[in-house]
Write the structure tokens for this entry.
Amino acid sequence: MEQPNLNYLYKLSQGDTDFESQLIDVLKKEFPLEKEQFINSIESEEMIDAAEIVHKLKHKFSILGLEKGYELAVNYENNLRNNNKSLTSEFNNVLNNISNFLNNL
Amino acid sequence: MMKCLIIDDDATARLIINQFCSNDNRLEVVEQFPSAIEGMKYLNQVDDVDLIFLDIHMPNFSGFDFIQTLKNPPKIILTTSDKNFAIEAFEYDCVIDYLVKPIELPRFQKAIEKASKVTVKKNVVTVAKEDESKDDLYVNIDRRLVKIGLASIYLIEAKGDYILIKTDTKNYTVHSTMKKIENKLPANLFLKVHRSFIINTNEIIDIEDNSVLIRKDVVPVSRSNRTELMTRLNLL
């Protein structure tokens, strides 16, 4: 499975470690909240709300270098807007993978 | 140096754009907001913002909604995770460039080069401005020109080939069109909220989703005019 990485972050920071810490802090703070919002939306069948959160999450996927994950999120967001949650399991796998990665930073 | 605003509901996006800006001596970030509504409130108070980095996809009020509320928009660089909005984006004269997230530094720098060179044509409401200094409106009623104090008008309603002008003291039915009278009213005081209604914004009592209460009249607000109405309000 595709693994998250910090290559984009390092490219952006150009050695600015303060910026690196700030961005990691924001990711660690926001990601669990958005993941929880997403799970709640799916559980309550609020597809449009879920799609909105997937939209926000997919930017984080791209920051963490998850190219395939990003494509999955694009398709999943579109599906949710059409009331189709067939990619939920795959999307959850990516979320759990990111959680593990962020927890170990 | 260009004074910049960053409007994006995603904190990581704001942080990244701010980082790019702080490494570019042509740019100074003066404020950052997580919503377009907050950005609107700020722009109502200042007039020295040169460039806005604007996310398109935000809950409740999109970047495009935001642009439509601006009378004299500064230069705008749209930032988005969607590639699908590019055509719509360039329908706005103020949009200089369109950056797809995750934004890469060379692409950001290219956008800033463009922003440095481009001059945005400002929209000017000429007719309304000319009339802003005038306090009265003369209307033709039974071959007489009757003077109506503009400040006394609280509501104008279309009635077929006529318009009904409601004032503090009297109502006037005049053979004219909404378009003609709209052009004679000061734009800072009056607002068309529906194709059949123009309101005096000083007379607003309250606003619900699709209507506004003007004195005792409940006036419908069309979806396309709601954004402009919201920008007029001194929202807390």
In short: The two ends of chain B are 31 Å apart (CA to CA). The first helix of chain B runs from residue 11 to 22.
